[in-house]
Write a structure and sequence with these properties.
heterodimer, A: about 300 residues, alpha/beta, TIM Barrel, 8-stranded parallel beta sheet, 4-stranded antiparallel beta sheet, B: about 325 residues, Elongation Factor Tu (Ef-tu), domain 3, Rossmann fold, 6-stranded antiparallel β-barrel
Amino acid sequence: MDDSYRVNICGVEWRNPVTTAAGTFAVAESGKYFDPAELGAVTTKGVSAEPWAGNPTPRIAETPSGMLNAVGLENPGVDAYIAGDLRVLKDRGATVISNVAGHSEDEYVYVCRRLDATDTDMLELNVSCPNVREGGMAFGTDADTLARLVGKVRAVTDKPLIVKLSPNVTDITKLAAAAERAGADALSLINTLLGMRIDTRTGKPILANITGGLSGPAIRPVAVRMVYEVARSVSVPVVGMGGIMTGEDALEFLLAGASAVAVGTAALIDPAAPVRVARELGELISNPQVAAAIDAARVRTA
Amino acid sequence: MRERATASIVENLEIASGVYRLTLADSRGSDMVSGIVAEAAPGQFVNVYLNSASMLLPRPFGISDVVASERGPRLVLVYAVVGAGTAELSTYAPGAAIRILGPQGNGYELAPLGKNVLLIGGGLGIPPLLFATRRIRERLTPGDDTRLTALLGYRDAPYYSGGMGLYCDEVFSISETASGIGEYKKEHEHKKNRPFCVVNGTVMDLAARLVSDGRLDLTDASILSCGPMPMLCAVAEWAKSKGIPAQVSLEARMGCGYGACVGCTIEVKPAEPIASAANTKGTVLFVSPSDESLTEHPSIAQRKVCKDGPVFPAEAIVW
């Protein structure tokens, strides 16, 4: 794969500006369709201190140009993650962003402390999952709560720290500013938008969790707008995501001021989508006018 | 590394009310169908993607048959129109291209199955059982006295029971509605050995009746089953009560259909080693049961239907 469009995100070299969105990449399963080392980075599924069983099924519902999910961060716990997926990914030469989930400040701090002692390249704090009752989005929708959590995590790790923001707020720039002030090295956005579907034949919600997170192309304009707002209001790099299906979609985020992008839902529809998007984006950036436009967007937002 | 690719529609035919048979061939520049025909095991499924940009998720359909015809390999899928996606699929005409990915998941363990193999199917679960039945029949050596018996349950008019008759020693059908059975009997009137068919009940009612009539030999038996979850649950219970090992192919609302989204998990019994079909590690594996990233965790006994199934031993599932 073409390495001519490397980016540096908080001191970490990415071979291209594309990563996976947390929760849409699984080592064994996605690894059948592409080599994780071909991406700028892979972002792994949210990991907590203890194993979480996640939500009851159905966890997935299709929506117009999108989908709702309420998986609820099912994961095997940080110890199993470190011994399993993280080791495999590092052995394969991938740049790894470990996504961290928690029910409490103490849990986030514990998981980050454990991961600080590993060779994960970066940490991403999931303070924006709409599908867990305690923790998740509760930490990402109040500026003071978010700042306190980011500060506590910052104190236990020197790893580059990305804070993933929720779009389910009135003014995302306030949360972005709080995270930056508390020590975030980068921001990623957006997580899913809280949504719901009802089966008109039964009158009941389709998801067992009643509500879920909306993702896919349906949310892309919202994501581009929020990336645009945040990139102008902070000085740390922004990883943009939300419904990116093609290289051109990814370019839209870079032109909005993002330094890199993440591919999520597209990978659930086309398993090889992340590397395809990276390839398509590379072809677009090889046009000097496009490259100049991206540089101009970064200067404007810096 | 097989990527999602296009296939060409050869036939998209309504074979019963709202039930369609979709036959696919390789399209120019893609050997996806050839690959599936060569590799597929009964019980595996195929992700079918719609051409509409607003309906993103794959529709997972069990493989009903793979055929090496004179004009090239053919993949046969049977689906019912249950929502907007399958309604759109039913409008696709022969010659149109669609994207597919497969074969997905793990199929049935086809040996050893004992002397009496019961194929218990319900509705759309029946066509995938045809593929399994054909494979079992083809592998029997001359003189093998293994008996294949199909018990098929329908909501309305039967379909695919004639096909099952080609490979089974006996086929018993049951329909929940009298109207369905009327059509069925009319269709088979001219045949010498009219298939046995009763009305007003489920496939488990049929099984109970056949046992009480002494028409079902359960010695050294095993069960392969596919159908809606309530039926599979009843099959599992019945199999357990009779001491018969059963493999069930589960249905689930899936997201990605390849194991990444963790949308279709099913609870499994943590105490028992789970040696499922093609995945015979004998331990409860969490999330990634590949050699490379074994992440075992006994406290969460959940498996992905799309990746670790859809076929599981019935006794492994928490019903």
